[in-house]
Known about the structure:
Elements: E1 2-6, H1 20-43, E2 49-51, H2 63-74, E3 80-82, H3 99-104, E4 109-111, E5 116-121, E6 124-128, H4 140-147, E7 156-162, E8 165-166, E9 176-177, H5 178-186, E10 192-196, E11 202-205, E12 208-210, E13 228-233, E14 241-246, E15 251-259, H6 262-273, E16 281-291, H7 293-307, E17 312-315, E18 321-324, H8 328-333, H9 338-353, H10 358-377
Parallel strand pairs: 1-2, 2-3, 3-4, 6-7, 7-10, 8-9, 10-12, 15-16, 16-17, 16-18
Antiparallel strand pairs: 1-13, 5-6, 11-12, 13-14
Helix pairs in contact: 1-2, 6-7, 7-10, 9-10
Organism: Tsukamurella asaccharolytica
Protein name: Nuclease SbcCD subunit D
GO molecular function: exonuclease activity
Amino acid sequence: xxxxxxxxxQLGMTRHFLxxxxxxxxxxxRLDAISRLGAVAAEREAEFVVVCGDVFxxxxxxxxxIARSLDRIAAIDRPVYLLPGNHxxxxxxxxxxxxxxxxxxxxxxxxxxxxGVHEVRPGIELLAAPWFSKHPAGDPLxxxxxxxxxxxxxxxxxxxxxxxxxxxxxxxxxxxxVAALSERIAAGELRYVAxxxxxxxxxxxPAIWYSGAPxxxxxxxKETASGAVLVVDVPDSGPARVEAVRVGTWRFASREFPLTAxxxxxxxxxxxxxxxxxxxxxVKVGFTGTVGLAAKARLDAEIEALRARFAAVELWERKTxxxxxxxxxxxxxxxxxxxxxxxxxxxxGVARSGGERxxxxxxxxxxxxxxxxxxxxx
Length: 378
């Protein structure tokens, strides 16, 4: 038996750093990922698709978002099982009980809306643990597995859950108990555990996997190997086989650059410019070190130019500690006189002091340099 394991579509997701044009592309990409994973299901002849929670970003979405999403799911020509997660729980405001969902729900969609066993067909069962609130007192999957009777002889049972996992030996009733799941797998009561919530493809333990999100949702220093769907083969006997197939097209790249000279600025700008698919790439960039006024002015200008090419360029403030310390020759080249020259010297002294106001003074000097150079060019 073969099926597709996916999760965390979070349809309707927005990102504050995307402008309106980039956000529209990002929204369409999340819908396109559904179509691509549907093509994978057809190509690999998967029997069904299971989405392990957070199908939608929130229960409060515009009807058009819900309707368009269901149209894409309808095009997957096999059963699709949707598990409510912490972003879209089965609470009083649930999307899954809304009028727009009922109106547009395609025939191939089954909402796993009750904890317990759901039969896919004779011999194949899903043991589902939906979320009924954003903050349950305990873990729904651990509770559901503990309460479930053993499957009948010859039945392949797949557990479907959502949430964080509990490391072996630790205790927290809000997290999925991996040790308990592994015991059920060893006993043959579960053949595979399909999880959602972690957006990176992750094997937690043998036959226990997070599929990750099918389209990227966070920067690569936090989220790795996202943008995939898992093709899972469960034989009549023996371990399940899992293959990650990429379906995502976006990238959130985080980069750090140490700068000590103008040539380092050239190298940093060159590395960023070399990133492919810029219209589908968001960059978070941090700079450390010390540069002069000319180098900082050039860096600012190049980063601003790159913003026009990428989906977004963000300053990584936590990884940025860049001092601007001009030399006397740089200040002399500005040919400042009178109060302006006195102010520049005062700022230079503060910048070199390394005190609390050093960064502000460096920034003021850099701004003064850019403005003065603009006047010279004009």
